[in-house]
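Comment thread on ticket #2218

A.B. wrote:
> Attaching the input chain for the structure job we discussed in standup.
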Amino acid sequence: MKRTRLNIAMIMLITLGVSSCKNGAKETKTSEPKQTLAPTQEATSYRVTSENSTIAWLGSKPTGNHTGTISIKEGTFYLQAATIESGKFVIDMNSITVTDLKQNSGKESLESHLKGTVEGKEGDFFNVMQYPTATFEVTGVADVAGKTMMSGNLTMLSISQNISFPVQVTSQDNMIQVKSETFTIDRTKWGINYGSKSIFDNLGDKFIDDDMEITIDVTAVM
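C.D. wrote:
> Ran it. Output below, let me know if you need it in another format.
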């Protein structure tokens, strides 16, 4: 009986370890794409301003991590009474930037590798030559345990997965800001398998974590 209880406890600890993230970010589960939302006639449209909208990312490996940003190219949200009814934004994958490295200190080579502009390594990560943009389309917004949860289809490399994450929506005059809490996505769900120990054997400590931390910050105006 003691051994059974110990085994159950070990399984619970392992499960909790897999579900938690290094910096406290919530792991986002993925599912099949869902039907997107259509706005009502009464909804007000807000145009995403690219200069004030960005995605911050963090990728980890045993020897450390890298941080960076990706620009949001364009998009529209539809609101009624401060509630998001529908929305979509386009992510400019050519804008991938590494922020923790300085010029001529590996920054350029890492950015090129992530973008897939290095000959022979186009498919390692985001292959921007073939897939210059990614998209997020809202499929639902709901209050869950006191938080606003936004769900949507995230499409990268022509693969769509539905994800959900907490957001804070604030409005002032003719402007709204939609900002997420930091959350993680499993990159292998979109076929980004380079350096993944869940895909490849015998990597030792030369692997890259499957989970990427993401923070979305979008500003839109009427």
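A.B. wrote:
> Thanks. Noting for the ticket: DSSP finds two helices and eleven strands in the chain.
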